[in-house]
C-alpha cells in the first residue's frame, strides 16, 4: 500500500522568496512520485514526476523536486516565487497498477 | 485546456433527484477515472475504466453508478445522494491503466441539498 503526507495545509511566502513544499511517502515497492498543481476552478495539471534515474527532476514553471530515498521524501522547490504560483499543490505516489494515491494538498499563498 | 471536458461545471440537486455527470476526452486515451475531491481530504479514487471495462471500484456506495460506453466518454449517474456527497468530482484520463500522466478535467462542483 502507498500513502502520502504533505506537511502544512497552507504555506505562505513572499514574492521572490524560496518556495518549499514538503512531501513524504510510504510505498512497499519502488515508487513513482508526482507533483500536480491545481489553479482555481481548474483540474489538476502535472508539474513533474520521478520514475527512475536522476533524483533531481525539473518540471514546468521553474519548479523542481528531489527524490531522497533515505528520507522517503520528494519535496517541491522553486527559487523565486511569482504571484502566478498561487495554487493548490498535490504530491502523489504510484506503487501499483491503478491510479495514483494523492496527499491532502498544500495551498500556496504568495504575499506581494 | 487539457483535452478532458466535464459537464456540467456546477450542479445543485436534492436528495431525491437523479442526475448524471459527463466526461469526454479527445486524447485517444484508453483509461478513464473518476475522483472525488472534498475539502481537507486527499483526492479519492472512485472508479477506473480501461478499454471500457471497469477495473477498480474503491468501495463506492451504490448511489454512484459509472458508465463507460466507449473509451472517449465516461458518465457518473447519481441518485438519492446525501449532503456529505457534496464535493468536486474530477474526471481524468491516461494513455493506459496506471498511466503515469493523468489529464484532468476542470471538474463538476456538486452540492446536495
Describe the structure.
The complex is a heterodimer of chains A (112) and B (113). Chain A is mainly β and 112 residues long. Chain A has strands spanning 3-7, 10-14, 19-26, 32-38, 44-50, 56-58, 64-68, 73-78, 87-94, 101-102, 106-111. Chain A has no helices and eleven strands. In chain A, strands 2, 4, 5, 9, 10 and 11 form a six-stranded mixed sheet that branches. A five-stranded antiparallel sheet of chain A has the order 1-3-8-7-6, with no helix packed on it. Chain A is globular and about 40 Å long. Helices cover 0% and strands 57% of the residues of chain B. In chain B, strand 7 and strand 8 (73-79) form a beta hairpin. Chain B is globular. Classes of the chains: A mainly beta (112), B mainly beta (113). At the A-B interface, strand 4, strand 5 and strand 10 of A face loops of B.
How is this fold's topology laid out?
The complex is a heterodimer of chains A (112) and B (113).
Chain A: E1 3-7, E2 10-14, E3 19-26, E4 32-38, E5 44-50, E6 56-58, E7 64-68, E8 73-78, E9 87-94, E10 101-102, E11 106-111
Parallel strand pairs in A: 2-11
Antiparallel strand pairs in A: 1-3, 3-8, 4-5, 4-9, 6-7, 7-8, 9-10, 9-11
Chain B: E1 4-7, E2 10-13, E3 18-25, E4 31-37, E5 44-50, E6 53-57, E7 64-70, E8 73-79, E9 87-94, E10 103-104, E11 108-112
Parallel strand pairs in B: 2-11
Antiparallel strand pairs in B: 1-3, 3-8, 4-5, 4-9, 5-6, 7-8, 9-10, 9-11
Amino acid at each position: 500500500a502507498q500513502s502520502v503526507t504533505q506537511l502544512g495545509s497552507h504555506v505562505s511566502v513572499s514574492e521572490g522568496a524560496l518556495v518549499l513544499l514538503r512531501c513524504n511517502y510510504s510505498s512497499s515497492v519502488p515508487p513513482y512520485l508526482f507533483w500536480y498543481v491545481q489553479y482555481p476552478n481548474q483540474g489538476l495539471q502535472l508539474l513533474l514526476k520521478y520514475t527512475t534515474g536522476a533524483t533531481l527532476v525539473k518540471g514546468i514553471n521553474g519548479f523542481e523536486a528531489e527524490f531522497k530515498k533515505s528520507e522517503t521524501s520528494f519535496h517541491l522547490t522553486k527559487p523565486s516565487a511569482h504571484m502566478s504560483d498561487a495554487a493548490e499543490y498535490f504530491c502523489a505516489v504510484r506503487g501499483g497498477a491503478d491510479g495514483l494515491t494523492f496527499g491532502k494538498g498544500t495551498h500556496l499563498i504568495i504575499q506581494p | 485546456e487539457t483535452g478532458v471536458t466535464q459537464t456540467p461545471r456546477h450542479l445543485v440537486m436534492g436528495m431525491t433527484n437523479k442526475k448524471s455527470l459527463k466526461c469526454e476526452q479527445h486524447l485517444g486515451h484508453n483509461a478513464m477515472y473518476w475522483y472525488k475531491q472534498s475539502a481537507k481530504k486527499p483526492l479519492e479514487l472512485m472508479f477506473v475504466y480501461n478499454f471500457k471495462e471497469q477495473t477498480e471500484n474503491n468501495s463506492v456506495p451504490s448511489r454512484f453508478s459509472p458508465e463507460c460506453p466507449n473509451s472517449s466518454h465516461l458518465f457518473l449517474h447519481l441518485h438519492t445522494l446525501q449532503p456529505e456527497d457534496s464535493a468536486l468530482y474530477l474526471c481524468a484520463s491516461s494513455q493506459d491503466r496506471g498511466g503515469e500522466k493523468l489529464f484532468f478535467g476542470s471538474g463538476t462542483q456538486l452540492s446536495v441539498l
